[in-house]
Amino acid sequence: MPKEGVSIQVIRRLPRYYRYLSELESKGVEKISSTKLAVLMSSTASQIRQDLNCFGGFGQQGYGYSVTGLREEIGKILGLSETHHMILIGAGNLGRAIATHLNFEQLGFKLTAIFEKDEKLIGTMLRGIKVMRDEEIENYVKDNDVSTAILAMPKEAVEKLIDKLYGCGIRSYWNFSHFDIAKKYDDVIVENVHLSDSLMTLCYRINQAPGIDT
Amino acid sequence: MPKEGVSIQVIRRLPRYYRYLSELESKGVEKISSTKLAVLMSSTASQIRQDLNCFGGFGQQGYGYSVTGLREEIGKILGLSETHHMILIGAGNLGRAIATHLNFEQLGFKLTAIFEKDEKLIGTMLRGIKVMRDEEIENYVKDNDVSTAILAMPKEAVEKLIDKLYGCGIRSYWNFSHFDIAKKYDDVIVENVHLSDSLMTLCYRINQAPGIDT
Asked: Which whole number is the average pLDDT over B7-21?
């Protein structure tokens, strides 16, 4: 269990530990020292020990970490076995990419329904799920156990829809739009994915690096 | 111009400033105080002043910031008018979403070519660009001015292709795979987008919040 007040920076590093450990495990590696893990992750041994100490440690002096043990512990901390039910809103290019690209079941979620307003896409199949009309969201959420919505829509569409989603009781969002949900409601959990911010950061870093551009 | 040693955390906040200022500008707002900007961005006035002071300030005592002026200055710092030429590798669901979803021209880039190995997709049009066979990458990069590659492929595909891309002289990457490029080459610039990490973080935050799940 996490000690109180674990910073969001530490939390955000946990999925990365989980990924690297999963990979080591799939290669048959059984144990690893914090020094070796640090080299692999381009981090430092001290950072790794500090991060993991927030949750109680897990390493053994002179042995290092058990790869499987540590992966499982981090999986437990992240709660990846919890299976929160989620719906996807938006079955356009971005929604399709999200639906097909991710192993939701291994990441703590199950995608149970997909909604779209474009008539052409309604009724099509995506990840084995029939895309429904967005007007059906309220009824669906009323009848089913849904905790989370993925918003793969433009900002304006989210702005129009968010009151309805909040009204249905949905309190957690994976938000690909630029609409600032947490500013409107203070009892929601929002993970924003701002792809354009990432691209602007890349632009800055290219400009700052001498001789990188052609 | 940035003072030396501006931290990556500050840099990563700049696109966010840019987005909020662009929005204020589009609403006709001419000036804003750091206090009001802080409320809008769920930040603090002191954080904003501190961040902007890394680049020389821009505010006027008792006036605040000129919205257009500050947006333009941040755009200059990010180098958004530079137009780096980039190629997209992978025209599957994720590649299509990236190609259609982003205003590259407003973010410092121009998407000039798209490559794919799936025969079914070669020759199709995406954002007005004809998808080419991935074997043509080397010749294309030799004949054209390309600084950056978007990698919308699985880890294993990137692992196979990365030496060729590096060999062609491409030194900056927008990487959607889990392959750790910066670990292999130390003179590259890589912005990673790990969607699954974001989803795992959301899972953790839902589990930690009492009463959020249904």
From this structure: 91
